Amino acid sequence: MPSASKARGLIPDTLIARFRADVEALCGEGLLALAVSGGPDSMAMLHLAVAAFPGRVIAATVDHGLRAEARVEAQLVATACESLGNPHATLNVTVAPGASVQAQAREARYAALNNWARGQGASALLTAHHADDQAETVLMRLARGSGLGGLSGIRASRDLGGELTLIRPLLGWRRAELAAIVGAVPTVDDPSNRDPRHDRTRARALLAHTDWIDPARIAATARHLAESEAALDWIADEVIRSRCIIDDGRIAADLAGLPREIIRRVLTKLIAHADSPADGPTLDHLLDRLENGLSSSVGGLIVHPGDRMIIQKAPERH
């Protein structure tokens, strides 16, 4: 059984209780699978988890094979886990070099962690995203012109299917307080976090040098927006249930009098149901045409305007 005594010796009881409450608000009983890179944030999460949930924690580090130091960093996490009496695994993935290497690495990392956690029988996969990460994400998405969904930031939880949930229990914690927890513990310094070519690095620098912007308040705003996003999504589901008829590949949707945003969400769901998902600009173009009484195609579908919109497969071209 993992021993929590060493972790408890580093952390005040109030912080352990706070972390326990944050995790329990997002998932129930079961094994907790932690993604631990070796940085201060994830190492703090490791120590908090071992102290708060002794015997229920496993950890893994992903080696993307992109930096020579990665193997040493994974070993640092393995050593820390060994000292805590906690199981650890190193997951090796392959990422092809190129312009989208960060996106590829993220996709490979989550796929590996998902498979590992599922294979271990975990009920939750935990990552160490915190309030400062959330604030950076919101700023980045503001700069890109994101809508409500994007400005809701990093979600606190997401169903991964098969009784596994991705949770982020540290979204209410600040980077500095996590670093303080592991001030006496060896951690990894990832140089990519300071690379000015990355949007997140620039957002982090802006927050660090702008004293009137409070990352914690931005994170709170993201939380409020996420609640609004969930409410609008619920309304869209109710509209589909009560005002749409799906019959043999043809969808009739009575959307008369509804706000544009609700129509957008309903159409997004209906189009995705027909295996033709559309991005934001495509949906904007679709809505503009429908509002002007014009039919429009999206993917392999055609949408006809009117109080009762008709969505059906577009005729095949010969």
Structural notes for this entry:
By secondary structure, the chain is α/β, with parallel strands linked by helices. It folds into 2 domains: 4-213, HUPs (Rossmann fold); 243-313, Up-down Bundle (Chorismate Mutase Domain, subunit A), CATH 1.20.59. Helix content is 48%, strand content 16%. It contains 12 helices and 11 strands. The protein has a 6-stranded mixed beta sheet, with helices on both faces. Helix 2 (13-24) packs across helix 3 (40-52), helix 6 packs across helix 10 and helix 10 crosses helix 11 (260-273). It is elongated, with a radius of gyration of 23 Å. The termini are far apart. The model has no long low-confidence stretch (mean pLDDT 90).
Give the helices and strands, then pairings.
Blueprint: H1 5-10, H2 13-24, E1 32-35, H3 40-52, E2 57-63, H4 70-84, E3 88-92, H5 101-119, E4 124-126, H6 131-143, H7 148-151, E5 157-161, E6 164-167, H8 175-181, H9 199-208, H10 215-243, E7 244-247, E8 250-254, H11 260-273, H12 280-291, E9 296-298, E10 301-304, E11 308-313
Parallel strand pairs: 1-2, 1-4, 2-3, 4-6
Antiparallel strand pairs: 5-6, 7-8, 8-11, 9-10, 10-11
Helix pairs in contact: 2-3, 3-8, 6-9, 6-10, 10-11
> Major beta sheet, specifics?
6 strands, mixed
The CATH architecture classification of the largest domain is 3-Layer(aba) Sandwich
Strand content: 15-25%
Question: CATH superfamily membership of the largest domain, which one?
Answer: HUPs
Distance between the termini: 67 Å
H/E element string?
HHEHEHEHEHHEEHHHEEHHEEE
Radius of gyration: 23 Å
Q: Total number of β-strand segments?
A: 11
Unreliable spans: none
**Fraction of residues in helix:** 40-55%
CATH third-tier fold name of the largest domain: Rossmann fold
Q: What do the pLDDT scores average to? A: 90
Q: Please tally the helical runs, counting DSSP H or I stretches of 4 or more residues.
A: 12
Could you name the CATH class of the largest domain? Alpha Beta
Strand arrangement across the biggest beta sheet: 3-2-1-4-6-5
Structural class: alpha/beta
Number of domains: 2
Outline type? elongated
